[in-house]
């Protein structure tokens, strides 16, 4: 790679007026009926809402910590119980004390209302409320059984099996519907689609998380760092010369393609041994897009699934479809029709894998499985 090309690879993070939420003044984005539960901006107390009729005032003191269940680049996720009604939930705590000032906190808490609205969509992890405590943000949400990254790594690396295509079909249907809901109903673009942000519940649910407050905070923090762990980024997000009109849902479609290919094949689709960040970014921007074939990594895939993944991975943003077109794709249409029948099968499959993990002394909440982690920097 020559020097000029290195220079051309500029990491792009959104400016404040290019945030994840667009058109915030739209009545759809801010349903007035829910304004009453809006949390007080930049405060350490908030409203915890489990249903339209079950709403509590709360502070961090109302929560009992049951221990860590996960850790990401920006903080940790703990299992906690709300003492007033004994509801168990997942609490994501993002360290942002030195990054997010009071004005930014207020802007971020404005997303609270949109987040609560997302509870109407069954493909999105339920959001209960958020507070700032000592500068850190606590996001309270539904506790799911496992994230897709830990799940697939266990299946491929420990069980030496594959995730069946009917399960991949349901993961695809759930994620595309969730992304489409965020865009159409809440005017939100996700921007961080990856396996760790798709969560599974052993009752058979597949849900997307980490948009809105979490996403906005991570953007704010990322702006203060040189770079983050962004191997799922579309070429046009890495190199602005590829993009004409700023951020578009089609960048999330690319990340979905990378995610599906990783989860379906058990391997991150780019080589894992890059010498540097630049080499990795260069490959995404200058190299060919990964393509799924009918026989890949010793696994067979249907023509419809390959076609869906490869459609998401069209390198030119302008030729990559948006959700309305993706929802018409034969792979989605087929698995949408199957959904009511396979939901119990999905539940049994997830339970089975969780049971196997437990029998092997592996917790669904820790990162015991060493795996095909994409390079982070
Ligand atoms: N609602 C939840 N229910 C159950 N587990 C969760 C929930 N939210 C997050 N987790 C677990 O916590 C882990 C850490 O989540 P977090 O969002 O902080 O980081 P990440 O998505 O893994 O990575 P990154 O920080 O790079 O975005 C996840 O990988 C997941 O396993
Ligand atoms: Mg996450």
Automatic annotation (TrEMBL):
Keyword Coiled coil: no
EC class (word): transferase
Region named Disordered: 1-45
Stored InterPro entries: Kinase-like_dom_sf, Prot_kinase_dom, Protein_kinase_ATP_BS, Ser/Thr_kinase_AS
GO annotation terms (biological process): cellular response to stress
Keywords assigned: ATP-binding, Kinase, Nucleotide-binding, Phosphoprotein, Serine/threonine-protein kinase, Transferase, Tyrosine-protein kinase
Highest taxon in the source lineage: Eukaryota
GO cellular component, one term: cytosol
UniProt-listed Enzyme Commission number(s): 2.7.12.2
Residue intervals of the Protein kinase domain: 63-332
Pfam families to which the protein is assigned, alphabetical: Pkinase
Gene3D superfamilies (UniProt xref): Phosphorylase Kinase, domain 1, Transferase(Phosphotransferase) domain 1
GO molecular function: ATP binding; JUN kinase kinase activity; protein serine/threonine kinase activity; protein tyrosine kinase activity
Compositionally biased tracts (Polar residues): 15-31
Residues at which ATP binds: 92
Entry's family note: Belongs to the protein kinase superfamily. STE Ser/Thr protein kinase family. MAP kinase kinase subfamily.
Name of the protein this chain belongs to: mitogen-activated protein kinase kinase
Organism: Chironomus riparius
């Amino acid at each position: 790679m020559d020097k000029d090309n290195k220079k051309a690879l500029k990491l792009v993070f959104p400016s404040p007026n290019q945030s994840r939420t667009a058109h915030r003044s739209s009545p759809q984005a801010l349903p007035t009926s829910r304004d009453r539960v809006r949390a007080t901006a930049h405060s350490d107390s908030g409203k915890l809402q489990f249903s339209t009729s079950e709403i509590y005032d709360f502070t961090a003191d109302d929560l009992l910590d049951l221990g860590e269940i996960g850790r990401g680049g920006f903080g940790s996720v703990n299992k906690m119980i709300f003492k007033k009604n004994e509801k168990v939930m997942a609490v994501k705590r993002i360290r942002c004390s030195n990054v997010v000032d009071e004005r930014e906190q207020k802007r971020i808490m404005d997303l609270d209302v949109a987040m609560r609205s997302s509870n109407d969509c069954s493909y999105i992890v339920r959001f209960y409320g958020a507070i700032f405590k000592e500068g850190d943000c606590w996001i309270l949400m539904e506790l799911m059984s496992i994230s897709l990254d830990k799940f697939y790594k266990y299946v491929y690396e420990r069980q030496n099996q594959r995730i069946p295509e009917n399960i991949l079909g349901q993961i695809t249907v759930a994620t595309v519907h969730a992304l489409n809901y965020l865009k159409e109903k809440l005017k939100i673009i996700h921007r961080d689609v990856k396996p760790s942000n798709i969560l599974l519940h052993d009752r058979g649910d597949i849900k997307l998380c980490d948009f809105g407050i979490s996403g906005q905070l991570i953007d704010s923090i990322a702006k203060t760092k040189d770079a983050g762990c962004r191997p799922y980024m579309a070429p046009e997000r890495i190199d602005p010369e590829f993009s004409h009109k700023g951020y578009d849902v089609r960048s999330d479609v690319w990340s979905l393609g990378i995610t599906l290919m990783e989860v379906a094949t058990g391997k991150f689709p780019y080589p894992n041994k890059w010498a540097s960040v630049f080499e990795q970014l260069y490959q995404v921007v200058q190299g060919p897009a990964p393509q799924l074939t009918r026989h890949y990594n010793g696994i067979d895939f249907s023509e419809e699934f390959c076609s869906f993944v490869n459609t998401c991975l069209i390198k030119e943003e302008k030729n990559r479809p948006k959700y309305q077109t993706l929802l018409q794709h034969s792979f989605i249409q087929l698995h949408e029709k199957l959904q009511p029948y396979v939901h119990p099968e999905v539940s049994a499959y997830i339970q089975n894998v969780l049971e196997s993990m437990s029998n092997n002394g592996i917790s669904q909440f820790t990162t015991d499985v060493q795996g095909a982690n994409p390079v982070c920097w």
